[in-house]
Design a protein that fits this description.
The protein has 269 residues and is α/β, with parallel strands linked by helices. It has two domains: 92 residues, no CATH class; 144 residues, Rossmann fold (3-Layer(aba) Sandwich). It is 52% helix and 14% strand. The termini are far apart. Bound molecules: S-adenosylmethionine.
Length: 269
């Protein structure tokens, strides 16, 4: 009985320690632990002779570790197939430059995702059209300002800039390749009322904008809400696509009939 309780306490302690790291680092540590353990086992069992079996067992062990460490379900699948995929890819004997090239492209697209936990995925056209309805009514004398936090390939910005040329559309994007893509898209498309900056959304002053749009992930929402509350002017709009703010009910929601069943959550500040 007391052994059982001790084990549970150890499990909880281990989870708390692992929670201090981003999931990608935890996954890497668990994967390494599984490989080291399997290498030690292989000394006695002769598993060295069958690389694929060895890899499959590493994957199973890493997935089991990840399950007990409380990683999300998709990590279990990644952990399961990581070493077997490595063995299969090595068997294909592709030139090493291929792996370096693939790594560099992924690095430039996903950049600091392992830390921010906000990868690149794009809003649908239907979301772009829904945002049209949130823009202020057209006025002849003054325009309005719109910010896309984490602007990806610049689709939201360029669509709105075409639809309502009386606004000023600004984006900030941390990953180099999406930033470059959107910068070229804006330049080559001749959008005079649109601009994008390479940098972190945490360095933007939100007091300059009438509408702030974010399509990120659940991870930054609590801190982003605090930043929006501190900086946005009264009466301006904060719009999050899909991801809620913990303990903050939106003033309005818009359900979008797209592939991801997106929802726009809207707060008037
Ligand atoms: C889900 S995508 C959304 C792209 C675009 N807003 C859209 O709706 O199609 C999120 C983007 O935010 C970027 N991002 C994540 N963290 C960021 C940060 N701290 N500062 C700036 N951009 C960030 C990612 O690189 C990614 O391109």
């Amino acid at each position: 009985m007391s052994l059982c309780i001790d084990q549970r306490v150890n499990n909880i302690n281990m989870r708390l320690i692992l929670k201090k790291f981003p999931p990608s680092i935890t996954a890497l540590m668990l994967q390494c632990a599984a490989v080291v353990l399997m290498l030690a086992l292989a000394e006695f069992t002769g598993l060295h002779d069958s690389p694929l079996l060895f890899a499959l067992l590493c994957g199973l062990l890493a997935a089991a570790f990840s399950f007990f460490a409380g990683l999300a379900k998709w990590w279990l699948l990644i952990q399961l197939i990581f070493v077997p995929a490595l063995v299969l890819m090595l068997a294909v004997e592709l030139p090493p430059g291929f792996f370096l090239g693939a790594f560099l492209v992924l690095l430039l697209v996903y950049w600091s995702t392992f830390r921010t936990q906000v990868p690149l995925y794009l809003s649908s056209n239907k979301v772009w059209h829904a945002i049209e309805h949130l823009l202020p009514a057209a006025a002849t004398d003054s325009g309005f300002t719109f910010m896309d936090l984490g602007s990806g390939l610049g689709g939201v910005l360029t669509h709105l800039a075409k639809f309502r040329p009386d606004g000023l559309y600004v984006g900030v994007e941390a990953a180099p390749l999406p930033f470059l893509w959107s910068w070229l898209r804006i330049r080559l498309g001749g959008y005079r009322n649109c601009r994008v900056r390479w940098g972190s959304l945490w360095d933007c002053d939100l007091s300059h904008y009438d509408i702030v749009f974010a399509y990120l992930s659940p991870v930054p929402m609590e801190n982003l809400w605090r930043k929006a509350r501190a900086e946005m002017r009264p009466g301006t709009l904060f719009v999050s696509s899909t991801f809620a703010v913990p303990d903050q009910s939106p003033h309005e929601t818009m359900q979008i009939d797209d592939l991801h069943r997106s929802t726009l959550l809207i707060w008037r500040m």
